[in-house]
Amino acid sequence: MKRIIALVLVLVLTLAVVGCGGKDKDSSIKVGLLGCITGDYAQYGVAVFNGAKLYINKVNAEGGINGKKIELIEYDDKGDSTEAVNAFTRMVDNDGITALIGSVLSGASIAVVGEAYPIGMPVISASATAAAFTYNEETDTVYSNAFRVCFIDPFQGEKMAQFAAEKLDAKTAAVIYETGNDYAVGLKDAFVKECAEQGITVVADEGYSKGDKDFRSQLTNIAAKEPDVVFSPNYYEDDGMIVTQARQVGVTATFLGGDGWARVTEYASAADLEGSYYCSSYAASSTDAIKEFEAEYAEAYNGEAPSMFAALGYDAAVVLVDALKAAEAKKLKAGTDDYKAAVIDAMKNTSSVGVTSKYSFDEFNNPIKDAVIIKVENGNEVFAQMF
Amino acid sequence: MKKKMVHIPMPWRYVINAAAIAVIFLIFMVLSSAGVITNYYSKILMLIGINMILAVSLNLATGYLGQLPLGHAGFMAVGAYASGIFMRTASGLPTGLAVLLSIIIAAVVAGIFGFLIGIPALRLKGDYLAIITLGFGEIIRVVLLNIDSVLGFNFTYGAASLKNIPKTTTFTVTFLCVVVVCFFIHTMMKSRQGRAILSIRENEIAAESCGIKTTYYKTMAFVASAAFAGVAGSLYAGYLGILNPANFGFMKSIEILVMVVLGGMGSMIGSLLSATVLSALPEMLRAFSDYRMVAYSLLLILVMIFKPSGLMGTYDFSFTRLFGGLLGKKTGDSTVGKESGE
Q1: ipTM higher than the 0.90 cut
Q2: What mean pLDDT comes out for the span A45-60?
């Protein structure tokens, strides 16, 4: 008997939850916001969400677009492809979104684009850096509906190799990267390739697995080769541990990284990190637009300082809202195929000005903009130069 | 007092069960053509189906055979990659045939891996078996991740993910696979082999002394379990269209084990039920955003406190028994009936 009651209760609960949702309002434009706000890379996801929400709220406070408010549908994908696809399908079927900002991680974003491309859903990601997000190499198709405001992986690897050769006069380099990580492998491959062009010898190529906490054996190998620079294109937590342990085993080389290094200073000591460089799309307090953004962000989120991901989330929202405005100007009805096509078209020809840069897209829907080189000095991540 | 019920003779049981399955399928079809089941719900249903196959296949090794393998996600990965690689190259074949072949290939390849791993692993018991299968599961994942860069060709595409797999998994295919897998496991457990497997669970030494070839039956159950996990993997590949070794980590194995334990080890209906609840719950609770994690964990804790043997214990549902029981009650006549012992 107890068993039957339990079963009935479970069914009732499930049905009750299924029953909710799916209200239609014509007075709003529904935009999906998808990303990992829990899980291993939550720091990225939360920042993107905060940045995007900051701008959308601002637009809504100023009266919305054409008198219509933008309604954000926020879902968490935990950084998991399956969850991302399910959440996206839910947004499309149950919530009726017109466009999507997301996802945050490359893997989840690629899976989502696979679903979004056939139905012509405009997608803009703040942080999906894998080239495959907008371009399918095997079938040679550009996903015309997908855009990003961040750099692609190869671009960052190339930039850092050029930077090492031109600005640091490096002759030898070592790389240490997470083998199971698309982002890290993408940056590392491009770096190694560009090193050959620039005349830098890669003396050590060390991989490690996700979840590793001890990098000493790889770092000891690197220390023995005495490279000028070490490229560590991983996520911040690992980078912090790698730099700390590298100094312990006697690696004196300058560390270089990609934009995954943002906030690395919270994960390693100032002395160990001193003089490291990484490339980014964002440098704190470097321009007036960024200072204004920082002030707004701090006001909205308890005085917190925004990261690059927050700025990119904001920029993704800016580009999308401008495109929505263009579609609204054509007096189309939100949610229709024509509307979505108009949004995609407007994004393709965008000239939006975000916090970090003015945007325009190349043939692969990647943004055309300069990289910012950040240097770690006295435990602070400071703007070094545009490169 | 024992309940009287009408005993339904053998061929009729299959007919009744087949009819019931057909009715359920028709209900789903009608609902989906009426637009009640949207694309989103059909995706969730497919995911539930995939998890059902994973849970019942692990239940074979955990619930019926009484072992504790922790590498189930590894077999799923093998099946998924085998079928994914096949589907990418099999664009010339008609879709139906290609899907059928991909599922068979996935089952065979995962079964072979199950055999290779089962032979050394099943000589161990309890914790040791858990650890060694855990190890093998991780080896599979790490090999899938690194084989390309080590051997220098494009096979699994490692961390970059195996992309462009045709999305061929439909609700119908998933439904059929669930039915076939459940039917196979059910009939297997009712057969001589199944009884032998159960006897090993109850007492391995006693079973051996009765002349049951324990190693043979253990390996057989393990291989079948792995092969069905491969089927689930194949469906998963066609469901997502993109495979990354990170999706088949240790946590995935644990997730499947949780389904089996929550449902009740040794209960097929339990596995099916808990696979449904645990796959649907996180999606259904999306509206509550952050709290959904709490609800999921809370459910597990509550079930384990109040029903440590799982939702269903070792109880197995029999449609014909229920049917026979109802028939018996209505007529109040037990002359036809023997007691159904199943």
Answers
A1: no
A2: 94
Residue A80 touches chain B, beta carbons under 8 Å = yes
Domains in chain B: boundaries = 10-327
Give me the CATH code for the A27-151+289-348 domain, please. Answer: 3.40.50.2300
- Beta strand A380-386 pairing with A372-377: antiparallel
Partner A contacted by B150 (CB < 8 A): no
DSSP structure class, residue B162 = B
Beta pairing class for A372-377 and A277-280: antiparallel
**Whole-angstrom distance between the N-terminal and C-terminal Cα of chain A?**
71
Question: Could you tell me which CATH number the domain at B10-327 has?
Answer: 1.10.3470
Rounded CA-CA distance A315/A311 in Å is 6
CA distance A381 to A374: 6
Contact (CB<8Å) A92/B39: yes
User: Would you state the pLDDT for residue A8?
Assistant: 53
Q: At residue A297, does pLDDT exceed 80?
A: yes
- Beta carbons of A94 and B159 less than 8 Å apart: no
| pLDDT tens-place string over residues A184-193 | 888 999 999 9
Residue type, A279: C
* A-B C-beta contacts closer than 8 Å: 102
CA A186/CA B149 separation, integer angstroms: 13
Domain ranges for chain A, please list them. Answer: 27-151+289-348, 153-280
CB A378 within 8 A of CB A345: no
A179: nearest CB among B146, B161, B315: B146
For B157, which residue in chain A has the nearest alpha carbon? A182
Closest CA to B215 of B65, B333, B341: B65
Q: What is the end-to-end Cα distance of chain B in Å, rounded?
A: 17
For residues A163 and A279, the answer to whether their CB atoms sit within 8 Å is: yes
Task: Report the distance separating Cα B280 and Cα B37, nearest Å.
Answer: 14
- The pLDDT of residue B157 is 83
Q: Which among B159, B247, B311 is the nearest to A182, CB-wise?
A: B159
CB of B311 within 8 Å of a chain A CB? The answer is yes
* Residue A15, SS3 per DSSP: helix
CA dihedral sign, ordered B264, B71, B177, B42: positive
Question: What tokens were used for A51?
Answer: 């940045």
CATH no. of A153-280 = 3.40.50.2300
Q: Is the peptide bond before A103 cis (omega within 30 degrees of 0)?
A: yes
Task: Tokens for B36, please give them.
Answer: 């009640």
CA atoms of B100 and B96, how far apart (whole Å) = 6
State yes or no: pLDDT of B154 exceeds 90. no
**Choice among A318-322, A349-353, B79-83 with the minimum mean pLDDT:** A349-353
Partner B contacted by A83 (CB < 8 A)? yes
Give the pLDDT confidence of B164-214 residue by residue, as tens digits: 889 999 999 999 999 999 999 999 999 999 999 999 999 999 999 999 999
